[in-house]
Amino acid sequence: MASKTTEWRPGPTVCRCCLTEGCYKDISTEYFWMGKREVYAEMLSETFDLSIAYSQSGGPNSHSRLICEPCISRLRDAADFKRQVQECERTFMQYLDPGSSLAELEVGVDLDKEVKVERVKEEKEQSDDDEFDDRPDFGDDDDYDDLDDQPLTKLASKVPKKESVDVLDLIDNAKVTVKRKSSSKTKVTPAKKAKTKKDIATSSKEKPEPRKKKDMEHAVSRTQMAKRNAQLVLQYSTVYPFRVRGKAMLCVYCCEEYEDPKDYRNHLDDLHKSFTVTTAFAHCGKGKEYLKVDLTDLRCRICLTPCNSLDEIAEHLRDLHGVAKIDTNFDIGMHPYRMDTEKWVCFICDKKMPSLTKLCRHTTSHYQKYTCDVCGRTYLTNEALKYHIRCSHTGNHVCRKCWTDFPTLEKKREHLKISKQCWAFCCLSCGERFMSWEGKQKHLVEVHGRPKRMYACPDCEETFDCRKHFYSHFKLNHSDDSFVCPCCGLKFGTKKQMEEHRFGHTGEKPYRCNVCMKLFSRSKSLKQHMWIHSENKRFICVICNKQFAQKVSLKGHMKSHHPEITLEV
């Protein structure tokens, strides 16, 4: 804490918990994280009995009531820990009164119809870097340079660690396939080996059972509890689970694809009235990935009561139907969506998105809780954060395919040019690899006859043959994410573009060359200028082999010394 406060200067955007400066969240505003309401002032008061007030003396920082993401993450952990301690205390006190808690563990509700076991169509194994990967980190909307924005499960060891048996999963699975057949029968505890030297009475023999169940429950991780909650919600409600492949919704049971969400819902209603709960989670590796679900027609399967959110249906099942194994103190391992035809709107914040893939990436951002201490970026899983740190903060230039370290960025680029096996994108039809997503799409059209992909704007029906032009059009014309120049009102897709444009109005030149101290108003101009000081010259005359640092210099050379040659660069 001392390192953060010694160099602190008063300002309007300072975190009230650690005194760092930046753009943060208001401490008394209502936010929603992982589907749950958060007001950080209330969390501070409930967890630590602390209050953050306005300053009475005035000054530039008097009205600052902001909190940064690292402090928010620590506050969430503290609040969760307090709830855990309270729950453990309740459990311990219930154990002191043996007759009170056993009934709670045995409560369950069975549906009238039996859930059938369904054979799943085997899916062709795909490359981890293909555009059709369901995980948001490999969607076709991001280039290779941006892959560290999302978790890469490929980083896991090739030989997976041996995991302990998830007892709660076994209980839940048994409930789906076996328990319904004998739901009217009383549970019989199997014979156990004697643990004491003397025979004990029947009443005392039943006593260790609650302790064993409680111990098993506390041994389960938060991830497993979230998965169990999700399995119960899927079993007893009408959520529509799905995966994403390109711009289509992929059935989690039979792998059929549908681009229209309405057609996908009809498919599940008609062909998958009976389903196996665990099949829907088969693609969620080790339970760390949350299941995507469409909540367009969310109802209780038992009483058909409509609900508006996952939390509401979970509380309904627990309170009205006795599904006591749903624990609302833990997350529900699902990401909620409301899928409308040609309208991609976030279920949590109602923000409009241009495509299904962009919507998935945006929705995932609401659940990112692992923060990088160096740059402040957030990630969905701890593995993704470790991958980001390995790629961005080790001080080395690393190839993300073969993990070779290079002393300079130029060496890494040379390696990528000649190492085809390290190219990011792969054609599933012929195995050819490409450095860019655009190169792969061009190959699919020219070699495999795939129709050229077109992008239709969902708001104005204008079509584009380039995804970057489409996304730029949507951002500038149909969203609130654009940045407006205060001098002329022109819109830009990024704040950096707007600032560099504004420098043209003000005459500012904030980018300085460290070699010759020349100033530039744009970072791109500085990067181009730095080639003058580099030993490597990118542009070579094909006639006399003379080298040049800039393209304009080569063009001038060709015009003066080789006018008969037409330069195509």
Q: Please tell me how large the radius of gyration is.
A: 29 Å
> Helical element count?
19
Instruction: Tell me the distance between the termini.
Output: 54 Å
What general form does the structure show? globular
Major pleated sheet: 7 strands, mixed
Beta-strand proportion? 5-15%
Mean pLDDT: 74
Sheet/helix structural class: alpha+beta
Secondary structure: number of strands = 25
* Helix content percent band: 25-40%
Low-confidence stretches: 1-6, 58-62, 99-219
Strand order of the largest sheet: 7-6-5-8-9-10-11
Biased composition (Basic residues): 179-196
Region (Disordered): 118-156, 179-218
Pfam families: zf-AD, zf-C2H2_6
Domain ZAD: 13-95
What does this entry look like structurally?
By secondary structure, this protein is of the alpha+beta class. Among the domains are: 2-68, no CATH class; 97-109 and 127-153 and 208-394, no CATH class; 483-533, 2-Layer Sandwich (Double Stranded RNA Binding Domain), CATH 3.30.160.60; 539-569. 35% of the residues lie in helices and 11% in strands. The protein is built from 19 helices and 25 strands. Strands 7-6-5-8-9-10-11 form a 7-stranded mixed beta sheet. It has a two-stranded antiparallel sheet with strand order 1-4. A hairpin with a 6-residue loop joins β6 (248-250) and β7 (257-258). The two termini are 54 Å apart. Mean pLDDT is 74; it is low at 1-6, 58-62 and 99-219.
